Amino acid sequence: MGEIGFNPVRIDKGHPTSVIIGSLGELLRIDSEGNQLGGISIPFPSQPTFGTVSSGTWIGTWVDRDLRKACMGATSLEGNLFDGKGRDFLRNSQATASDVLPDSYTWCRDIEGEPMGVSSNEGAVFFAILNTGIYKIDSEATELWRAPYPQWPDLQDFRRVDSIAELVHTRDGVVIWSESGGISLISEDDGTTLMSRTLRLPERIIGVRHDHRAGWMIMMSGRYAGILSGLDSEPEVVKLPGPVMDSIGTSEGDWIWTGWRHDGRMKDGVIDIREREDIGISILGDRVLTNSGDWSFHAFTE
Q1: What is the CATH number of the domain that holds 42?
Q2: Higher per-residue confidence, 90 vs 298
Q3: What is the pTM of this model?
């Protein structure tokens, strides 16, 4: 597990193949041990905003607000991955957003709006379009249902700027998390709203992780994170050295995480922090992928 050759921003995790996403739009497949599978490709003109691995396929979204273009596309994780045509192609032609993607993509769709919060389960893909709706599609991009965009009355003042931070598939349904603290649980079968509430948090939500034993870890934009045992419980807000970038639940029902110059653990309600010299981007097994593209052991998994 050496350097990956670019600056990563996240790992879209799957089994057995995951995809590292780079700051300039790079994609790199890795196995469960972090070993590289094939070379680096750059299919989108910029960093994929959201992505998910589903049944041997990676599905990603791309948005260019200046050009008012957005698309979603899917590619098999087998065989070679190729580069797209790039942003200059879009700027200097009448091409659509999906025209930039390489021919190796199994499907691509132009999106009227900003797609966000992509997640998947057994071949089905769930995503939101800002202030438009929530969608479920199958592996061929056929729409199965659409549901209204969530409304949280307590957050009406933030409605125009309150993006979806995460869609998380759980045993109970699909959980929608907004940046301002809105939560909606909807049915996986038809998108019916099953539960809705808001949380009062000190900072904007940048991501959420779920584990059926540990509960929920809410990652915020500054020096705080939140722990929830269940969607109907009150969060325990903890102060940290900096933002959490990724977190996983342990077999004991605890949390470990990595982030801005620290690794952390919450065990039996007690937080333990150890400094790191770099920024941990994501956890894979017992290793941390850093913002410089290096791998190192997590402080609490050695």
Answers
A1: 2.130.10.10
A2: 298
A3: 0.95
